[in-house]
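Title: Prediction job returns without error message
Component: structure pipeline
Severity: low
Priority: P3
Assignee: unassigned

Description:
Job completed but the reporter wants confirmation the result is attached to the right record. Sequence as submitted:
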Amino acid sequence: MPENDANTSDKKKTIPEKSTILIVDDEQVARYTVEVLLSKEGYNLVFAENGEEALKKAEELVPDLMLLDVMMPGMDGFEVCQHLRANKRLGELPIVMITALDDRDSKLRGIKAGADDFMSKPFDRAELRARVRTITRLNRYRRLIETEEQLAYLANYDTLTDLPNRSLLMERMRQALDRASRTHQNVAILVLGLDNFQIVNDTLGHEEGDQMLCEVAQRLTQTVSTMGATVARLSGDEFVVMFDTDNLVKDVSKVVQSLLEKISLQMKIDNQEMVITASIGISTYPTDGSEVSLLLKNADTAMSRAKGAGKNTYQFFTAKMNEAALERLILENQLRKVLINNELRLYYQPQIELKSGHLIGMEALVRWQHPELGLISPIKFVPVAEEIGLIIDIGKWVLQTACQQNQEWQRAGFPPIRVSVNVSSRQFQPRNLLETIKEILINSELNPIYLELELTESLLIEEEGDNENNILALLTELRSMGVQIAIDDFGTGYSSLSYLKRFPVTTLKIDRSFVQDICTDENDAAITTAIIAMAHSLRLSIVAEGVETSEQVAFLRDKQCEIIQGYYFSRPLPVKEMTQILEKVTKQPIYLMKNQTEKFSSL
């Protein structure tokens, strides 16, 4: 790989053994006097006769002290001082102004110009030596500290991009691996190499290549700025991005896609529009190794594979991780087309009233009918849809389809029942959601009393201030229309009684994780009993999810749970099968007998 290095003209030279003093005075006698007084002190004395010469020699020598006469023809001492303070390299140079003037205004003018001290002519020998000795010692100490800091910087940072270099990267990697071993996290190491960068150097030159490397470094840093990642320059056109993660495939895939997209954006180098791409190799701790050098080597190997696979892409070092990342990438890309390709399906799971044994509602559950992979569960694709911002469109489709289908069943003569639809927190933009629901109800002609929205408990609890008021206003208006409001998976979050009192909730749904073991686990039984009792005290309906056995049915009936949903009666059904159930229910209402074992779906 070609090595591009920063311009090093600003690097400080090694501090000489003798302090250098630049004496600026237009009078030869004055210069000679200072020389005589300081000659035995061991300084390197340099002289200038005017302001222009003083600035030139100060730039060349960077002295430890300047003794600057105020009154000189042409450029006086005040102007010289102002020029020095505006110079990046000489802004900290100690300046003692020498003047025969003893008026206060001249000294104030000198201080404003940037002078550090004043001395008057004729010189007092002891005072001159003492002041020069003190100032030069302090300045040499300051320069020594700066030099040590610069050496430390050069040892740990890349002088072109200001990113950590290989040395500092290795140290940070060791720290990250130690931390990950204690917290049981993963560490992702991404080695990134620019594609065809040699062509840039060969055709445009190394200076333009350096500009491109600096631009890439900035883009990398900006892309991962919020996640605490380390970005380093490994060598030439190779960079490294390292970060901790709890969700390896998801986080790495997301970061890598962002990096590739950001790097490939057009950039302007010397007024030329250019595009560069990158190939990324990924290794992970602890899967691909526990040593820093091995992880870097493995990531570099994976980067070479990415270049061989066509460039502008990425590869995991581990084949299994590659398969998982590829599956997610394919899922994400194809998910963007589900609405256009009409691949979403709604399934309906019946809800049974325990007291009467009647079917009184159903929950609409979305599925993805993939042309190659078959039916995909929402557990797999809904989180991805939320991450890429597609959940709002999918949620609208679900609402619209569920309302239209429910109305179609009613038009076909089936008894009207309620349909429940889950609303993601990403959909919950009060003003937009209200307008969407109103529009859907108008278009479908469904009576609002036959629509129930299922919200997560955290959605209500995490909202504060004005946003909470907006949600309260939204839910209040929906309730005034007749729409039912349910809290889904109740008991798995905060279970805040105050929020139940504040918001116009009509139903609580007990999470299946409690129902599953209510007959064998005393804690789950106690929690479920308490939730039912609390709901009754607040005059809320209760739906128990995940009911699978007659023992669970008996327990819930005994605790006066109103509604039951689960595989004991039916799995979620496609429209055709749900229609068949409605036909049978219309002819023969369902009664849940104490010892009933027959599945609802067998009717």
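Comment from assignee: result matches the submitted record. The chain has a mean pLDDT of 85.
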